[in-house]
Amino acid sequence: MNTPQHATWIVWGKRLLTLFFLLLIPTLLYLLAKNLNWDEVRDALSGYSLQTLLVGALIVLCSYTVFSLYDVLGRYYTRHKLPVRQVMPVAMVCYAFNLNFTTWIGGVAMRYRLYTRLGLRTSTVTRIISLGLLTNWTGYMTVAGAIFSLRLIRLPPDWSLGVTGLQFIGFALLSFVLAYIGACAFARQRVWTFREHTITLPTLRLALMQICLGAANWSLMAALIYWLLPDDAFYPSILGVLLISCVAGIVAHIPAGLGVLEAVFLALLQHQFSQGAIVAALIGYRALYFLLPLLLASITYLVLEQRAKSLRKKQNAAPPANSAPTEP
Fold first, then answer.
1. CA dihedral defined by 50, 54, 60, 63, rounded to 10 degrees?
2. Is the pLDDT of residue 27 over 70?
3. 3-state class (DSSP) for residue 229
4. Which residues pair with 198 in a beta bridge?
């Protein structure tokens, strides 16, 4: 059991770590902007053909579609009655806001707002969000575990951790995934109560679908950066660097990982590509994966709000037996 003093040290440790990153990232960005050859970046950006950008947009569409299936799994997990055609747009909109404005805004607050306005109970939304987070991170651990344990990431020769250290991390991640699969397959007690919240262990089939969807989404994210980099890029290594940068962005608590993504990619890939090519690829990645979906999501959000408003009017006008979607 954690003592109050131990909890205080944890809180202050997190604050100091966040402050460290808040000071480190602007410094790294300043050094990057000062030493970068912006003419090279401009030439790399202008070298992207329309076909390249369209294929990139298609990869983004596939990734957002896969992510929306997280909430479709949540629909079957909670057995709520909202149709899939309503669930998928909600998930896509929340994903775009989540990427640009942190998890608490897009992944949590907006999901509660949209789903409850569409008729779901708060407890059901909580279970959908929890399953989605589990889907995302089991997929992450599966992909990262495979990349790291097989030594598929090409690190700079002088990087302190090295491929051996990453390999042990990969083994640990895969062990967590296997433990989760084993629990879903063989656990006799499938329902736990924690701080007034009920947790139901998914079935083995659902757990395997979680891992597949989560792994597919992370793979598609890396595929976009790989597509925008020069032809000699090694996809497993690009995927591994992306996975490392995402964890660094979460630790830094910076919306959209702004600066963190760039710093990690430059640190780990500048021995393979020019800085201009890396920065150009990341600018294209942010434009296609973050900004363009955010614009479309903002429009879709207004449509969903209007649809929810119309649904509430129908529910208020209907007899009690035909009111909000039923849930077990």
1. -140
2. no
3. coil
4. 193
What is the SS3 assignment for 6-67? HHHHHHHHHHHHHHHHHHHHHHHHHHHHHHCCHHHHHHHHHCCCHHHHHHHHHHHHHHHHHH
pLDDT band per the 50, 70, 90 thresholds, residue 161: low
| Residue 298 tokens, joined | 């903002």
The DSSP line for 259-272 is THHHHHHHHHHTTT
3-state secondary structure of 133: helix
Question: CA 323, CA 234: separation in Å to the nearest integer?
Answer: 54
What span, in angstroms and rounded, lies between the C-alpha atoms of 242 and 96?
18
Q: Which pLDDT score is estimated for 91?
A: 95
Nearest to 252 by CA among 28, 8, 7: 28
| DSSP track, 135-180 | HHHHHHHHHHHHHHHTT-----TT-SSHHHHHHHHHHHHHHHHHHH
Beta carbons of 245 and 261 less than 8 angstroms apart: yes
| Predicted structure pTM score | 0.83
Residues 262-282 pLDDT 10s: 888 988 898 889 888 999 999
List all residues 6 or more positions away from 9 whose beta carbon is below 8 Å from its beta carbon: none
- Secondary structure of residue 88 in the 3-state scheme: helix
Residue 143, both tokens? 């992909």
Q: What angle do CA 256, 259, 261 make, to 5 degrees?
A: 70
| Residue 291, number of CB atoms within 10 A of its CB | 14
Question: Domain segments of the chain: what residues?
Answer: 41-307
